[in-house]
Amino acid sequence: MTQLELQHLKKYYAAHKAVDDISFSIAQGDIFGLLGPNGAGKTTLIRMITGIIFPDNGSILFREKPFDPRNDIFNIGYMPEERGLYKKMKIGEQALYLAMLKGLSRSDAMKRVKMWFEKFEMQNWWNKKTEDLSKGMSQKLQFVTTVLHEPELLILDEPFSGLDPVNSNLIKEEILRLNKAGTTIIFSTHRMEQVEELCQRIVLVNKGKKILDGDLSQIKNDFKEHIFNIGFDGPLPQFESQTSTIYRQKDQIVTVKIGNNATPSDVLKEYLAYNTHITSFNEVLPTLNEIFIRLVEELKTTPAFSDAI
Amino acid sequence: MFKKTGLIIKREYLTRVSKRTFLFTTLLLPLLLFGLMIAIAYFSIESQDTQKIAINDPSGSFSSSFQNDKSVTFDFTTDVNKDNFAQKGYSAILIIPPDLSSGIDSVSLISEKQISIMTEQRIKSQINNALRNKALLENHIDKSLLDSINNIKQENLYKFSAVIRQGQKTEQSNAGLAYGIGFASGMLIYMTLLIYGTSVMRGVMEEKTNRIAEVIISSVRPFQLMLGKIIGIAAVGLTQLLIWIVFIFLLFSIGGLFLPAETLQSGSGLSTAMAGNQDATAAMEILSAKNLLLSANWGLIIPTFIFYFMGGYLLYAALFAAIGSVVNDDAQDAQALVLPVTLPIIFSFVIMAAAINNPQSSLAVWGSIIPLSSPIVMMARIPTGSVPFWELGLSIVLLIAGFIFTTYIAAKIYRTGILLYGKKVTLKEISKWLMRKS
Predict the structure, then answer these.
(1) Which chain A residues in 85-114 lie under 8 Å from chain B, judged by CB atoms?
(2) Contact B215/A47, CB-based, under 8 Å?
(3) CA nearest B417: which of B319, B301, B272, B303?
(4) Domain B51-149 carries which CATH code?
(5) H or E element, residue B72
(6) Sequence-separated (6 or more) residues with CB below 8 Å from residue B40
(7) Chain A partners of B217 at a C-beta cutoff of 8 Å?
(8) End-to-end CA distance of chain B
(9) A78 and B432: CB-CB below 8 Å?
């Protein structure tokens, strides 16, 4: 089933087009990466999905039905990038309050808050004020308040920022566990290594437009540049290759880019012909980070786009 | 929808009421005001230490006509001059030339320090009186006749009563009481508008800068969040008001308890009070103050006060909320934007001060009908009993329409402003948001 489908969404502000005709869909149970540089329109997109603002144009389908913010927002959990909590409120009260605003009864809310506090070892904090918490602690509290009502769709904007590796891992485990239990997750971040680790599908937006959409592995394949690492044992061969050019050389590994008319086999044959000891031969796929930077940089230099701003 | 707004109201109310500062202001403010009143009364009596003034009057024609009172005593001496009056313990010396009518020599008052304007006035009027008496006596007016004329005072000779007559109904009019109640209610509404209004604004700003607003409006509509805050703070205000009313009531009854019954009783007889018994005078004053207070039309004043208190608050709180939603952390920004809202409140106070002296002037009438100023101005007019029902009705309807209108406008500004960060918003942009359809 499709969890969420965006059709030709548009949101224009006086000075600029925050979201300009973006469509994509997210399958239920996916971990979906929503990527883009600062000011690309991610927050505006997320605000439309969470019913905070309405699109000027286009439509949103939630579970294949037109999105009805009044009811559907109870099935959505949203953790904004800029964390927000009442500083002077006790954290237990705060978690209860936010859960009840999501429609839980007081007793249900109490049960779940206790459960999560125990899980994150936060029981002793109940009567502490938020302003007394460290950044990592309040991050955990924010995560708890986001998932308390067990939403079907979880939207997390930079969920790991400010967390140490231990807590970061704790949250990651929880995200994966919720996902296994059926929760669809939209994950918005600049940290590409986390996207590569967690996401199955991604969408890249820039300047209000969608510039990339697809399976992570497919995208990496699409952007591959026929680059291979060859590992050697012993002295490196010195010869003028006909099939490839050396891209980089480090220790016993040579990185080569294969020429247009050659295949990996041709390269391997050529190297073997020089009587070398080859220990490894593998393709180097571009990292998402490289793809991201390449696409964003490319758009910057395209005149058509700077006109549109 | 209502359930969630209720949750928000409850949170606003409880977090504010449970704060220590709430207890502080609620209990200390009346005590402070009460203490201040007592202090003012005390010092206005005590600080008038008696001033001794030497009078050098060679003609001797004034010696019989200067009367001493609580604050000034006059001594006619010849051995004091302008060089030694200070050593002899006088605060000033008044030198009256022998022939006043010549108009050449001036009466001079010489002192080392500035003599208060009150004393100066008193001396002048004493001289005027003396001159008038002298003129009358010189023209063969009998001395005893003159004394009896000088002794004409309202309370010695006749009773005065002002009555207001509307159709068949007549009632005791008391301009002083109406003035007092009107001014006090107008002042109280003025203060609460500003205090609770800015409290709403600060609350909205806090939610915006804390970024909690975004979390909350992913669960409730912005309008609910705004309304919840406004109503929650209104409830805090009403609680505070209620505590104060109980407090004042208690103070009054306790004040009555301190005086023994006999003094109260003797106080009710005018004649004994005249005898100068201090206790009795005080008791009489309390008793008559009590009767006076009871004579006011509380049946009208209390409900209208509560209505204008709430109506005025709702009207302005919405505007304050809208302003809180558009400013960022910058306090200067807030100040510039809040001016268009505080200005009409301050202006209403000025109209109220004028209306209280002249409740039927067209400024007072219009000021009490137009919703921006009516909460403050109308309360100055109500106690005088001079507001026709159609004016009161129109004012009430307009105030209700007024706060619905400001809430509607504020909601439009609020829902855009609360999500807008890092941008200075101009009034032009705000007016654009207002034009936009929802």
Answers:
(1) 85-89, 97-98, 100-103
(2) no
(3) B319
(4) 3.40.190.10
(5) strand B72-76
(6) none
(7) 52
(8) 19
(9) no
Q: At what angle do helices A135-147 and A106-119 cross, to 10 degrees?
A: 140
Furthest CA-CA distance within chain B: 95
| DSSP-derived secondary structure letter, B221 | -
Residues in chain B: 438
DSSP string, A164-207: -HHHHHHHHHHHHHHHHTT-EEEEE-S-HHHHHHH-SEEEEEET
* Letter string b/e over residues B118-127, b meaning 16 or more CB atoms within 10 A of that residue's CB: ebeebbeebb
DSSP state for residue B426 in the 8-state scheme: P
ipTM of the complex: 0.80
Residue B215 · residue A78 · CB < 8 Å: yes
What are the pLDDT tens digits along chain A (309 aa)? Answer: 888 999 999 988 777 788 889 999 999 999 999 988 888 888 889 989 988 888 888 999 998 899 988 888 889 999 988 778 888 889 999 999 999 998 899 999 999 999 999 988 888 888 999 888 888 888 889 999 999 999 999 999 988 887 888 888 999 999 999 999 999 999 998 888 888 888 989 999 888 888 888 888 888 888 888 888 888 887 777 777 778 888 788 888 888 888 888 888 888 888 888 777 888 888 888 888 888 888 888 877 655 444 433
Contacts of A109 in chain B (CB under 8 A): none
CA distance B6 to chain A (A): 10
- Nearest in space to A51 (alpha carbons), one of B211, B409, B419: B419
Amino acid at A56: D
Calpha distance A207→A38 (Å, rounded): 9
* Interface probe with B: pick from A44, A52, A102, A153, most Cβ of B within 10 Å: A52
- The count of C-alpha atoms lying within 13 angstroms of the C-alpha of A244, restricted to the half-sphere facing its C-beta, is 23
Cα A67 to its chain centre, rounded Å, is: 23
Of A7, A43, A32, the closest CA to residue A22 belongs to A7
Min Cα distance B239 → chain A (Å) is 22
The DSSP letter of residue A74 is G
The model's pTM is 0.76
Q: Are A110 and A102 in contact (CB under 8 A)?
A: no
Non-local CB neighbours of A87 within 8 Å, separated by 6+ positions: A129, A130, A131, B210
pLDDT (tens digit per residue) in B302-336? 889 989 999 999 999 999 999 999 887 777 777 88
SS3 call for B73 = strand
How far is it, in rounded angstroms, from Cα A13 to Cα A48? 14
Q: Are strands B92-95 and B72-76 parallel, antiparallel or unpaired?
A: unpaired
Maximum alpha-carbon separation in chain A? 76
Instruction: Pick the closest to residue B177 from B382, B392, B388 (CA basis).
Output: B382
CA angle in degrees (0–180, nearest 5) for A177-A178-A179: 90
Distance from C-alpha of B272 to C-alpha of B136, rounded to nearest angstrom: 36
* Euclidean distance between CA atoms A147 and A169, whole angstroms: 17
pLDDT of amino acid B315: 95
Question: Where exactly are the structural domains of chain B?
Answer: 51-149, 175-435
Minimal CA–CA distance to B186: which of B3, B6, B326, B379?
B379
Both tokens of residue B191?
A: 């203060």
Residue of B2, B207, B214, B224 to mutate for A, most A C-beta atoms under 10 A:
B214
* Encoded tokens for A213: 């959409």
Report the share of chain B in percent with pLDDT over 90: 25
Chain B residues within 8 A (CB-CB) of chain A? Answer: 4, 7-8, 11, 15, 210-220, 419, 421, 429, 432
What residues in B contact A74, CB-CB < 8 Å? 219
